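Consortium newsletter contribution from the modelling node. Members have asked for a concrete example of what our holo predictions look like. Here is one, prepared for the adenosine monophosphate complex that several groups have been discussing at recent meetings.
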Amino acid sequence: MILILLGPPGAGKGTQCERLVDRYNIVQLSTGEMLRSAVAAGTEMGVKAKEVMDRGELVSDEIVVAIIADRLDEPDCSNGCILDGFPRTVAQAEALDVMLNEKDLVLDCVICIKADEQALFARIEQRAAETGGARSDDNAETLKKRLGVYHEQTAPIKPYYAAKGLLNTVDGMKEIDEVSESIFAILDK
Ligand code: AMP
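And here is the predicted structure:
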């Protein structure tokens, strides 16, 4: 099973991913996490990505597409995966289609977690407080930028997948368990 989990920053993609990983025995591929690892490791790509990430902007399509293409070839992806934070632009979605086709893989479902913007600010502030600022992009100013980028560059992938009949939307403002149940109901159909 190959899934895409879509939604604005702070919508709860990470939390829901953990549950999907357990239930369906698939791996989570988070481009944000992979980029943060590259930043922590101080690789050349990490150094470049950090500046962009701290501004709340998107790293180039080329970089993230290459990261995902390599990662999909790892043996732990053989049972499937959840793409968390990828694709984030229509160009990435198109590149993913080509990549899956080349690898003889099929995208099963896209789940969009809808969330209220005011609530997202509160959540990100809480996440920043709880993690002691572990993520340098978890603050109100960067969130505003990240939300703008989401609306401008990522939201247009919704009609892209709707046209393919793959898009499903869940209400991310409900309790975490309820959101999970809505996602399971879609996937178990
Ligand atoms: P995330 O953890 O998914 O919120 O991602 C954190 C940051 O990493 C984003 O704000 C971007 O700067 C960068 N990033 C993560 N995934 C992508 C992607 N698919 N395309 C471009 N930039 C990304």
